[in-house]
Design a protein that fits this description.
With 380 residues, the protein is an alpha/beta fold. Among the domains are: 90 residues, no CATH class; 69 residues, Arc Repressor Mutant, subunit A, CATH 1.10.10. The chain is 52% helix and 10% strand. It has 13 helices and eleven strands. It has a four-stranded antiparallel sheet. A hairpin with an 8-residue loop joins strand 3 and strand 4. Helix 9 packs across helix 10. The longest helix is centred in the C-terminal third of the chain and has 46 residues. The protein is elongated, with a radius of gyration of 29 Å. The two termini are 44 Å apart.
Length: 380
């Protein structure tokens, strides 16, 4: 299943909720206009009539200003649903001079109170204890650019679901069981409207972990390695596992009378957490290997053209014809910052049996260039 049909399936109960909310919004707005009309007719003060606010479950497109506004009157929170998330990432900092859209998103993740002031407005936008989810798909190229930013801290806050990279997967006649789909749709709607009742009644719901569930969670944390590169992601995963456990607990106990998360629920939450952690790590493995593959193929093709054309870049060293890493780098500056990086890709070609470095003693290196020789079967 492609990402768009998968998202459509997951959001099917959300579509039903959104439709009901939209109809309710229209009804409320019509009643408001009717009251305004009656008040004017009776020469009454229309300012006493409270204008209704529109409720929504998700947004497909928004600005930070509009988002803060919407969060202010949707206490259950909202979802930003994008088929292509890179559109959102590209637009996050539309206000370049200190707008800080990305910083606002990070604050919303931590459910921090947000107050926003923008030029041209005579009032502040504010939201308290906001709930925001961002859901969507993304292609590998923009995702790689997104993950390569190690400073903004946003990538560790996403949960990644990465399927196996089967680019030529066979067509399947299997469909999602209709009964299971109906149960899923009903359960999600049930939890949403029950949560809405709790919010409107200003009731709070809190849970605790059983001793067994807490011990399982603590032991699970010990399985993570000491990793400087992915340490921030592991920290977020540990905290997120509790949120997943709470979601699973509410799914099993929609009436919320049971306030203790048991060991089995925590076990299931940790299984899901392991999948998300492994998906995150899988992405880095894919990109690291893909980059190596791309560079190796580029170097190989460049060398083949060089040898076929008997380029002037080919040098002779103790009877061998080849190219130095320095010359290769100089003609490919956009890909290699220095000759060490060029040497690294030559070493990768050597491991693949495409060419070799002729052996030179330290004394011989003083008078002969270190070259990389392409095997003749690659270009003849």
């Amino acid at each position: 299943m492609k990402k768009t049909p998968a998202m459509k399936c997951v959001f099917s109960p959300g579509e039903l909720i959104q439709k009901k909310l939209r109809l309710s919004n229209i009804q409320n707005q019509n009643e408001y206009r009717k009251k305004i009309k009656e008040a004017k007719k009776n020469k009454e003060d229309v300012r006493t009539i409270v204008k209704p606010v529109d409720k929504t479950l998700y947004l497909s497109d928004t600005t930070i200003e509009a988002l803060i506004d919407v969060l202010g009157y949707n206490p259950l929170g909202v979802i930003i649903k994008k088929d292509e998330l890179n559109q959102l990432f590209n637009s996050l900092n539309a206000y370049k001079n200190g707008g800080g859209d990305l910083e606002t998103i990070l604050e919303l993740y931590g459910q921090e109170d947000v107050t926003l002031a923008r030029k041209g407005r005579d009032f502040m936008l504010q939201t308290n204890t906001p709930y925001l989810n961002i859901v969507g798909g993304i292609q590998l190229k923009p995702l790689k650019d997104f993950l390569s930013n190690k400073e903004n801290g946003i990538k560790e806050r996403f949960i990644f679901a990465v399927p196996d990279m089967n680019f030529k997967s066979e067509y399947s006649h299997h469909e999602i069981n209709k009964k299971n789909k109906e149960i899923y749709n009903k359960k999600v709607q049930e939890i949403f409207y029950e949560s809405l009742k709790w919010i409107e009644a200003d009731k709070e719901f809190s849970c605790s972990l059983s001793d067994e569930a807490k011990e399982l969670w603590v032991e699970w944390q010990k399985t993570f390695p000491d990793d400087n590169e992915h340490g921030a992601m592991f920290e977020k995963a540990i905290a997120r596992a509790l949120k997943i456990a709470l979601i699973l607990h509410v799914l099993k106990n929609p009436d919320r009378k049971n306030k203790v998360v048991n060991e089995q629920t925590m076990h299931n939450a940790l299984l899901m957490s392991n999948y998300f952690v492994n998906s995150y790590l899988k992405l880095f493995y894919i990109f690291e290997n893909k980059e190596t593959e791309d560079l190796a193929n580029h170097a190989k093709n460049w060398l083949i053209r060089c040898f076929k054309s008997n380029s002037k870049l080919i040098k002779i060293s103790r009877g061998n014809a080849g190219v130095t890493a320095r010359d290769f780098q100089r003609h490919n500056k956009s890909k290699y910052k220095n000759s060490d990086e060029a040497t690294t890709v030559f070493e990768e070609l050597e491991r693949r049996g495409i060419g070799y470095f002729p052996h030179l003693s330290e004394e011989q290196k003083k008078n002969n260039p270190v070259i990389f020789v392409l095997h003749k079967n690659q270009y003849e």
